[in-house]
Each structure stands twice: as structure tokens, then as C-alpha cells.
Amino acid sequence: MTPASELVAKTRDLVEQDFSNRLAALGQLVRIPGIAWDAFDPNELERSAEAVAKLFRDSGVFDEVEIKRASFEGVPGAPAVLASRKAKNGKPHVLLYAHHDVQPPGDPDLWETPAFEPTAKDGRIYGRGAADDKAGVIAHLSAIETLKSIAGGDFDLGISIFIEGEEEAGSRTFRQFLDENKEKLAADAIIVADSMNWSPEIPALTVSLRGVVALDFKIRTMEHAVHSGMFGGAIPDAMIPMIKVLASLHDEKGNVAISGLETYKFEDLPYTETNLRQDSSLLPEVSQIGDGGLMDRLWGKPSLTVIGMDVPSVATSSNTLQPSVSAALSLRIAPGQDPLRALEALKSHILAAVPFGAVVEFGNIETGKPFMADSSGWAAQMARNSLAAAFGNPPVDIGIGGSIPFIADLTEVFPDAQILVTGVEDSDSRAHSPNESINLLGLKNAMVAEALFLVGCNELKQD
Predict the structure, then answer these.
(1) Measured distance CA(455)–CA(276) in Å, rounded
(2) pLDDT mean over 344-360
């Protein structure tokens, strides 16, 4: 299952020969601001899906390439690209996933280059979606066409393509899409190209993801606002209990202080406090939080962030006691944690912590299951061998502190499939942030690795 040196050299040459064309295709996609949020033009999502579909149609590999939608609660989702080619002669079937939608660009003044104009600089391509996840789309395309060049157009491997159009907006129709297209998507191995490598030179397989519990809640103390000078000191405005509740969520060291949450122990990797400060932009005078090793804190322990509050801004503030204040919380949970139990633990903590008999009202809730891969199968071993051959270094198993909740849907709909979470990003990619970029060496290595994996699958005989 280890690729021969001649095959590795040939694969790398083919990727290298066509790399400029791949970068041009990536640039074409980056120029399309396809954002699946209601506040943005849905026509751009359509343009994005059409551009992706054309790339896979032009490959000449697939029996069918479609743009399809599923619905959730009667509302159609964003356009996704579905392509399929049946396996022959007992070969396995591989599903390749990525997404073509992107995050909003944010404040344009924080970008050093235009967000939707791909810009090459210092060995990287900058632009919104250049890394997350249009580079994943192009890596899939490159791997498929490299397989075609090596094995011929009539190769036996079965391949399905699912390029989602609403991952950054929560994948609300993802499960319905799987159910409606189950026959075309069913596979022996699934590659989810939406993660990262340890570095452009050191590859990684993502073997764990934290789950998520997102919760909005409101605290009320009065029917309406009143003058702070007339009633302050006797009447608790809603801000006081809200501050006390939020302060109770962490202990003095910054650990999450909610009872009933689980943790998972990870092996340490060569990642130092200096790496953490550089990658996160932590200010020199600010200390880290939490107990335990860095890998445990980043991947295996719960974390909780107040991601939003509805309060008067400083610019519009007045001498008023606030009758109600709202907050949005994002709780990341460890692999193995039941998200519904974590949700109940979070609610119970809030209710126990709120003082003065203030009224708590819970609002929108979102949960996503964590993921822990079974990396003992043939697909994981073939992926590791392919990554090692392509990058020239053995891969490391990593966790991700973030969440990809739809992977739980993949495991439920396709319980026999081996799921491999790979990616093209690195610690400098700044996905979701201004100045998002992809490292060209890392992208090229990822293309070679996936091509070697597909060639290996095409030569594999199913039991």
C-alpha cells in the first residue's frame, strides 16, 4: 500500500505540469463572492456552483454532473454540485467532499489585498475562500485528473463528488441532501477536504473534532427601562445578573466551570507557547488560560466563548437601567461528549448562577456532535502512506478545536464508510479572517497526496 517511488515521481510531475492551470481555476473561484447568508446576493452562489460544476464536467470523468438542492422545513438550501462515476471490476468507491461557499469578507480595511481578487505574494495566494475551501475543490479536481492521466480515462475506481454550497451557513440541508442522494453518494471511503496540515511540509490527518453547543439566552429584571439615577442602588438592571452569570462560566485559571462536561486526553505534539502566541496573535503581556497540555486544551477539553451580546453600545449609551440583556454562547465539547447532555449542563449552570431572581429565557439552540475517527482501516493507512510520500515527512494525527457537525451525519447515513478528514490549510491560512491565504507548496503537496490515494484505490481489490 506504500506508493512506489516511480509512481510518486510521475504523480508529482503531472501535478507540477498542470499547477498553473489549477491556480487559474482557483483564482476564478475566488473571484466569485458566493456567501450562503441571507444578507448576501444568492445569485453569486449560483455563479459559484456553475463554475465548480463546469470544472468537473470538463474533466470528462463523470457519468453525470448536477447542481442540486435539498430543503429544510420547506425552505430550499444553497446549490450544491453532485457528480458520480460508478465503480467497476470490484474496485472501491470514494466520495470527495468540499464546499464552494465562503465566509463574508468582513471589514475591507483589514485586508492587505482585495478580498475577492486572488493575489500571489510570498509563496501564497490571498483571497476569501482561497484556503477555505475552494482550494479543497481544486485539490479534488487535480487528484481526479492526475488519476485519469496515470490510469487512463476508463479507470475502474468509483468516485462521487459533493461540493456543498452552505457549509459556512450551518449546512442546514446537509442531512436531507444525503438522504435524497444516498445511492450516488454511498462510498467505501469519504475524504472531507476541509481541515489543515501541521505545516506546508508536514501533513496531518484530523482524527478528532470537538462538538458544539450554541445557545442564546436573555436575562430580564424589569418590564421597561428606568432612570439609573432615580432607581440605581435598589433595582438590579439586567446587566448585573448577566455579568455575574458570564463570570461564573470560567474559574480563576480560565477553565470552563460547568459541571458534567467531559474531557479527552491527547498526546503532546511539538507545539510550544511561542507557536501558540504567533498563530493566535496573543499579546505579549497576556497569559494563556486553562490547565493541562496545549493539545488537551485546544482539542480535548471544553471551551466556552461569549460570541455576542445585545447591549447598548458606548456611542449610544445613556443613564438607563437596562430591563433585559441577551448573550450568545458557543460551547465546544470534547470527543465522546453527548451534546444534548452538555446543553442541559450549560442551561442548569446558567439557572443556578443567575442572582436576584432574575428571569432567564432561552432562545436559539444549535448542537453538533463531536467526531473521533477510527483510523485502523485500509483507507486511513493508504492515506497516511500517500501523505508521507507526497510531503516527504510522515503525517501526524491531529485534533481540531473547531467543529464540523455534518460529519456525524456522514457516519449515520454511511456507517460502513471510512471517513478521512484532510485539508490544504496551514496555521497561517487565517480561514474566516481577513487576509485568508493558501500556501502553494502545501497545496501542491496535498494534490499529490490525494492523487496517490486515488491511484492506490484504483489498484486495490475489494474483498
Answers:
(1) 37
(2) 98
